[in-house]
Amino acid sequence: MQTHEASKVISALRNGSPPVDFAEQILSGRQPEIDEFNRCLNSLDTGESSVKMILGEYGTGKSHLINAMKNIALKQDYIITSFQVNNGFRLNKIDDLYYAIMHNLIIKNREQSKTSFNEIFDLWIENLQSAPFPDRKRIEINAVCQEISKYNMTFARAFLMFMRGRIQRNHEMLEVTSAWLTGERHIPYELKQKYDLIGHVEKTDTLDFLKAFAKLIHLLGYRGLVIFIDELDQVTFERKDIRLQAYNNLKQLIDMTATGDLLHTLFVFSGTPELVKDEEKGIPSLESLAQRLSLSSSPEYANPMQTVIELVPLTTSQLHWLAEKILSIYAQQTTKVDKLPTLESLLQTMASEQDTVTRSFVTRAIQYLDACVQSN
What we know:
Layout: H1 3-14, H2 31-44, E1 50-55, H3 62-75, E2 79-84, H4 94-102, E3 105-106, H5 122-129, H6 136-148, H7 153-167, H8 171-181, H9 189-194, H10 206-219, E4 225-230, H11 240-259, E5 265-271, H12 274-277, H13 287-292, E6 308-310, H14 316-332, H15 343-353, H16 358-374
Parallel strand pairs: 1-5, 1-6, 2-4, 4-5
Antiparallel strand pairs: 2-3
Helix pairs in contact: 1-14, 2-3, 6-7, 7-8, 14-16
């Protein structure tokens, strides 16, 4: 880790935020969850899909773990998409879910910004352009369209028009078809008619479009699609009708992944434990969903192979490892290394604070190190 990178990590931790780019390097005590995540990733190659729900109180390192998972998925050539439940997206409308997925795509080497629908085809198009025989481009594009037409014919036809726009460098065709494929609704009728596009993505065919997209990216050479949806517990604050519709949609996604109806896709939801503990407004309020998550049988959330994983606080030894790592990184980004305390002194100070909440432990450790280097 270079000096500016170490400084970036310490700055993020000082502010109570997880360091996105180096999440794996300072992740302590979550190896079972990472192992299970890797198992789920590998299963996407064979067409399997799954749902994971990671729950943890604020400050337990949930966001840090999720960031590590994102980095792992990207490095292994999965496309990820990441967003959270909020006033704009409440999971109660399945077409809104599709829109959120398609407008928050990220691919390897583009981790710092969202990836446009157009950009995920760059490498594939580049390989087709350098094909040893001229007909390969047409044959392969037609083969892909034929395969995704099994999921939705309208999606396949729009994708064919999208590819024509790319090949012909027709900017208008490319923009219109890309907007339509990603769920935009306000496309002028004249433009849709011009490029043989029908209607827009509606809830009746949204899931077919998601199936087609997941299959499409796998055909392009990506290993699968990983969808991260944070703050799922925000659903509990919604009106009852919105809340129950969101839970029904979640149940439908679980069923689709379990039956093999949706391929090459992993959903990772995260939130606080209230989501499964609130009998009135949480998941237990929809019995059919609670049963699918085995909530009625008092599951062991600590088992990472369960759909629901509840993060437990770090042990003393795990916190000590974290303190050692923070001290090492801090030393890399300061010129006043001689003023830094020994690890034993740092641990002694942190033990006196008696704080086992991960975020508080980390921020207090850095406050102590800051005080050391600023002392006369």
